[in-house]
């Protein structure tokens, strides 16, 4: 699923056209799905002495770099 396990960021529906565009386009509602910037990362956790492979948003990667992998993943409930 395309959701970050740390920040819980998922896809959103956005957009919308003017009525003139709506009359001539294939997608009459004009709504488009916007996806978060998810990256596959292999993170080393020194406290557990092992690697974990996760699909994270770029915001979550910054949080891990700032607060540390073990602390961030424990707070999110990914590791026990």
Describe the structure.
This protein has 80 residues and is an alpha+beta fold. It has a single domain (12-76), classed as Ribosomal Protein L24e, Chain: T, CATH 2.30.170. It has 3 helices and 4 strands. It has a two-stranded antiparallel sheet. It has a two-stranded antiparallel sheet with strand order 3-4. The longest helix is centred in the last third of the chain and has 10 residues, at 58-67. The protein is rod-shaped and about 60 Å long. The protein starts with 11 loop residues before the first strand and ends with a helix.
Quick structural overview:
This protein is α+β, with helices and mostly antiparallel strands and about 80 residues long.
Name the descriptors.
rod-shaped, two-stranded antiparallel sheet, 3 helices, Ribosomal Protein L24e, Chain: T, 80 residues, alpha+beta
Low-confidence stretches: none
- The CATH architecture classification is Roll
Secondary-structure element order, N to C:
EHEEEHH
Return the average pLDDT rounded to an integer.
Answer: 90
How many strand elements? 4
Question: How many separate helices?
Answer: 3
Number of domains: 1
Query: Which structural category do the helix and sheet elements fall into?
Result: alpha+beta
Straight-line N-to-C gap: 22 Å
Q: In which order are the strands of the major sheet placed? A: 1-2
Helix fraction bin: 25-40%
CATH topology-level name = Ribosomal Protein L24e, Chain: T
Q: What about the largest sheet?
A: 2 strands, antiparallel
Please tell me how large the radius of gyration is: 18 Å
The gross shape turns out to be rod-shaped
Please write the CATH class name.
Mainly Beta
Strand content: 25-35%
């Amino acid at each position: 699923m395309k959701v970050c396990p740390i920040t819980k960021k998922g896809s959103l529906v956005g957009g919308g056209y003017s009525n003139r565009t709506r009359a001539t386009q294939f997608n009459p509602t004009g709504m488009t799905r916007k996806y978060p910037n998810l990256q596959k990362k292999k993170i080393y956790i020194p406290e557990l002495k092992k690697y974990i492979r996760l699909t994270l948003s770029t915001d979550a990667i910054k949080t891990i770099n700032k607060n540390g992998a073990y602390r961030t993943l424990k707070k999110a409930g990914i590791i026990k």
